[in-house]
Design brief:
By secondary structure, the chain is an alpha/beta fold. The protein folds into two domains: about 10-95 and about 165-255, Metallo-dependent phosphatases (Purple Acid Phosphatase, chain A, domain 2), CATH 3.60.21.10; about 100-160, no CATH class. The chain has helices at about 10-15, 35-55, 75-80, 95-105, 110-125, 140-150, 155-160, 190-195, 200, 235, and strands at about 25-30, 60-65, 90-95, 165-170, 170-175, 210-215, 220-225, 225-230, 240-245, 250-255. The strands form two sheets. The chain has a five-stranded mixed beta sheet with strand order 3-2-1-9-10, covered by helices on one side. Strands 4-5-6-8-7 form a five-stranded mixed beta sheet. Helix 3 (about 75-80) links the parallel strand 2 and strand 3. Helix 3 packs across helix 7. The longest helix is centred in the middle third of the chain and has 19 residues, at about 110-125. The radius of gyration is 18 Å and the shape is globular. About 40% of the residues are buried.
């Protein structure tokens, strides 16, 4: 498996995409997983079946982020994704807002804990065998953060620390949440790439590339002239979606 650079800025990527992507003939993009290991493994199996039926020399899977929270198996998802695969498919892992919030919680638990737990972090902690009370004080937040840091293995920590914000391939830009339509492409705030919603979703701006994103749930893939949204609410709907991009165009598979 060829590693694709993880630490280049969006400016670099926009002006000069990763050299390793030039030979890619197909990209599979997977939407928000949110602790659903069962759906992820099922979708990855379907991807391998598609590769078997329609082989290409080089393909990559781009995971759009939000691996954790809300669903029941955040710890297991991280362990699965952090384990190298021997199937010859390159992997690109983007950072979602939920993944960012876990990392922030490890640094400032009392500051970020309340919101993180409110929006799915409690389920993530539970998957690591960690419980948090309904009204924790600063001392408990620190205990929970320390317990989580101890529960995360080296591979999982390394995985989370090396998540990237964007990936370019051909006429597509992959990010977790979207692009700020009021900012130039060479000056996009990192926060917006992981968190933006309405301003991006409501914009008809031509970005020069089609933006492939997750973050905002829709019952079906949301295909617009300037973007493709593939977060189909896996944690509650049971439907995890993959966008397939290659010379044949755009196709979808889902659980």
């Amino acid at each position: 498996m060829v590693a694709i650079e993880h630490d280049r800025t969006l400016v670099d990527l926009w002006q000069d995409p990763d050299p390793e992507t030039a030979s890619l003939e197909r990209v599979y993009a997977i939407g928000d997983i949110h602790g659903r290991l069962d759906l992820l493994q099922s979708l990855e199996k379907a991807i391998l079946q598609d590769m078997g039926a329609r082989p290409v020399a080089r393909a990559a899977i781009c995971y759009l982020g939000d691996y954790i929270d809300r669903g029941p198996a955040s710890a297991e998802v991280l362990a699965h994704l952090a384990t190298p695969k021997a199937d010859g498919i390159s992997r690109v892992f983007l950072k979602g807002n939920h993944d960012e919030r876990l990392l922030a919680f490890l640094v400032s638990p009392d500051k970020y804990g309340p919101d993180w737990v409110r929006y799915g972090g409690r389920e993530a902690l539970r998957s690591f065998g960690i419980e948090v009370s309904l009204e924790p004080d600063d001392r408990e937040w620190q205990r929970v953060s320390d317990s989580l840091s101890n529960a995360l293995g080296h591979a999982e920590k390394n995985f989370l620390r090396h998540l990237r914000l964007a990936f370019c391939w051909r006429n597509y830009l992959f990010v977790h949440a979207g692009i700020n339509p009021d900012m130039p492409m060479t000056a996009q705030p990192c926060h917006d790439l992981m968190w933006i919603r309405d301003a991006f979703l409501e914009s008809d701006r031509d970005y020069g590339r089609i933006i492939v994103h997750g973050h905002t749930i829709s019952a079906e893939p949301d295909v617009q002239m300037n973007r493709i949204g593939i977060d189909t609410g896996a944690y509650s709907s049971g439907r995890l979606t993959c966008l397939i991009l290659d010379d044949a165009g755009q196709n979808f598979i889902s659980t």
